[in-house]
Each structure stands twice: as structure tokens, then as C-alpha cells.
Design goal:
Distance between the termini: 66 Å
Number of strands: 12
Structural class: alpha/beta
Number of domains: 3
Number of helices: 14
Shape: globular
Largest sheet: 10 strands, mixed
Strand content: 15-25%
Strand order of the largest sheet: 2-12-3-4-5-6-7-8-1-11
Helix content: 40-55%
Length: about 550
Amino acid sequence: MELVMTQTNYYWQVESSIYGGIGYAPATLEEYTAIAKALDAEASGFDMLSVSWSNAALQLQSHRTSAPLCPTLSSGDPLMKTAGHETVSYTALEQRCQDHALACRKLSIDLADTASLLIRAHALYSEAELQARRTFTELIQAGTQFKPGHAAIGTAAVALGGLLSGWAIEGRPNASWMSTSTYPLQEGVMSGAGALLGGVPIGKGVAHTDEVNKGAGNIAKVSGPIKDIVQGNHIDITEVYARNEVVGASNSVSTSMENLRRLAEERLGKINLDSGLEYGTIAIQRYEKSDGSSAWLVTIPGTDGKADSPFGWEQNVELMSSDKERRIRADSVRMVTQAMEQAGIGADEPVALIGHSQGGIVAATIASDWSEQYNIEHVVTAGSPVANHPIPSDTWVTSVEIDDELVGALDGAANPATKNWLTVRGHVSPAPEATPSSVNADGSCTPGATPIYGATPYDAAPVAGGPTNGREISHWLKYHQAAYQNATDLGSPALQRHESHFQGVISGELKETRYFQGRMTASTIQAPSDHSEEISTFH
């Protein structure tokens, strides 16, 4: 026998949950909760009816076969009469019972799905879920502090189990499965490691969540000066010009996320828009409101890791520090704030910031530490560990995270769930592969099946451009875009409030899009830019 191995193609989808950003009174929350419980109760009732109808069909089958010597009764066909015997149509009765069972089961599923949708859209149990998550994180943190060696071995064992599980599924080793298997432990292990590095005694950090930031601050005391020696501490900031449009006009969070993805992937070389933009580049846009005043949107991609970039790996440690002075000295923050000054952003003009990964941490840092210099009204972060940044309560924050991306868990804590801070948390899962349509030999057609992203559009959103040969690290921005799309599809009032606020900040006509590039040097003499002579035609 010849064994033929076939490769399975995978398509990926993201299902979202929403935390924080609640915009209605506790009484309204109680009403929604009561409705969800009532729908669940009705679902259970119809499920029981389905079982009853199924049992009735079985009882009819048993009754029919209880007299095998009676051909009329055993056949269930009233036309097959035997002298002195009459019977009903058992076949028809059994089919009707099965039909009723299926109908009740379908109605039960629909009611349960509606209750689940109501719970997800209105975050009815988010407070309880976050409290349970916080408790679990604190337990893992304490265990990591008390027995760091055991914690390391245990986490490694779980990661190895994920690797082997993924190997069995895909037929090849894929390290992405290690993050998928360990994601429930990541915040606790990170906060425990941060507490060890930050000198936080066991049990003393229960009232706080910033252990990672304290640890990062201690590391930055050493890594910062070393970085300044190796990379230099002077930033050359040059306005550069795109040959083709990269960051276009935006009127929503979704559009701004797409612009962020285009800029991030263009400067990393993952896509080619022939713009001429390189690493260490951000975008600043000015919108003119109906009254003639200006509003601003600053788009900040993440780490590019280049040797002379202000968005290198080392800057992440400083950005995560609990020390304000250390945070504002981070090169990526200095680069963005100096570019904002060059762009002419006024102290009272409304500003929205959007960033991915390190870019989101930069945005959170500017909102936290530059609130007296700039009017930061809304911050959007994607895959950024910013839970412990002291963002003012009047600044709106919309955070998008994927549960197994690891980067979002590096802060060792869940984001605050307040009226002005909303978090969309996505979960990645495989979706069915599409099958093509075909025309049969007799001329009949067999329609193809499209990928089913959940039973309804509300269940999950597809990952555009996701891999087809297996899982990948879900830190890429396309996963956050899918998570936000699914949260939007849910019709969450909290998300709608945040979306409306973001749109209100940048409402108006786009007047200009300017790009600024940063390079780290040891000299204070600014190096010429290769793009300084190019003329931008996109505004």
C-alpha cells in the first residue's frame, strides 16, 4: 500500500472579546445580563425538547420492532396489512419526531448564540473575567518569584508541548505553536520575572501591576548608557518625501490601522509600494476642521531593529521603564516628539496617535509624559504592552491585542477597563479552506464552498493575507486588523463610542501628509538624506 501525504492549507480567523469602554449605566448592564440569561434559559428548554423528540422517535422504533413476527407492525407501512391487524405509519411518525428534534436543536443553538453575542458585544462578564485573569496572573507571579527555576522549567515544558502538538498538526516544527500553548502563563511569568529584576518582595506587588516596568527600569540603567555608546545618542530627523502614496486620508480606526500596516510593511520591505520610504519613518497628517482649526494624526510603526534606527530593540526597555525620565529619553519618543514639533503641532490642537508594537508604546508614553506639551485626545495601540503607562484618564485609549502574540503580554498585566480605555482581545483559530466550483459530466454544477469564518459574520473575521501552510506569530498587524473588524461586526456600544470619538478628533479634510525619518549618530552634525530633494505629490 502506498501512503500518499497531502498538504493541508490553512486559513485563519480571529474572534474578539471586548473589555472596558462601557458607556451605559449599571442598571442598563443588569438589563442586558437578564436578557442574556433569559435567552440561555430558553436555549436550554428547547435543547430538552429536542432530546424529548429524539427519545420519542426511539420509543416508536422500539415499539415497532417489539413484534418481529408481525410484518405490518415491523414494517411501519399501513399498506402492508395482515388480517385482523391495523397500524399507523411508523416511518412517517419517526421522521416527524426527528424533524421536530432537529428544529428544536437548531432553535436552541440560535438562542444560545444570540446570548453569547449579547455577552460579547456588551462585555457583560468582562469584570469577572478580568478579575479571574488577575488572580491567575498573581498566582503565577508568586510561583515564579518563589521558585524561578521551577517556573522556567514548567513554562519550557508547556512550550515544548505546544511545539510537538503543532508538529503533529502541520507535519513540521513551527515555533509559533510555543507561544500559542503558553499564552495563559505569559503575563504571570513576565510579572514574576519583572518582580525579581525590580526587587519587589513576594506578595508586595498584589496591589500593583507594574513589576515588569520596575524591572525594565533597572535594566535600562545599564542598557541605556551602553546603547548610547554603541549607537550614539544624537538623532538626525529629516523630512522625507514619498514617491507614491503610503499613508492616505483616514476617517476611522480601521482605515488608520491599514495605513499603519502599509507604512510598517513598506519600510521593512515586506511590501513594495515604490515610495522610497525606509526604516525609522513615521507619518504626521494635518486635518482641517470646518471651523478652520487643525487636528493631527501621528502614525508610528514598530521596531525595525536597524543599527542606526531610533526604533531599535534596545529602546523598548527604556519605553517600558517605570521611571518617567527614562521613558522620555528613549530615542523613539524623542524622535516622534521632535518630528511633531517640526510639523508645527500646536499645544492646544487635538492629536490622535496610532502605533503598532513599539510604536504603540511610544504613543502611550507621549500621552503619559507629554500631556502638558500636546493635547493628546486619543491613542490607538496594536500589540503594545502599555497596561501600566500612566495615561491621563481624559485621554481615550483603544487597544487591540491578540492573546497568543506574547508582545502584548510583556507588561505582565491586563489593560485597565475604564470608560475611556477599551481593549479588543482577539483569539486566532483555523478556518475551513474554500473549495472550487465544478461542472459535472452530465452538465450539472456543484457549487464551491467559501471559507466559513464562524457560523455567522459575528463569530470571527478572516485574516487577510494570512499564511496557508500553518500558523505564524500573531503579532503581525493583519491579526489586529481582523480582531478590530470582528469587534466592529459585533456592534459593541462601547467600541462604537470609541470609534466615534476617534473620528471626531480627526474630522475634517486632510491637508497634508508629511513623513519624518530618524537616524541615530554620535555626531551632532546632521547627515544628508537621500530623499531630501524629492518632491511629495501626496497631501
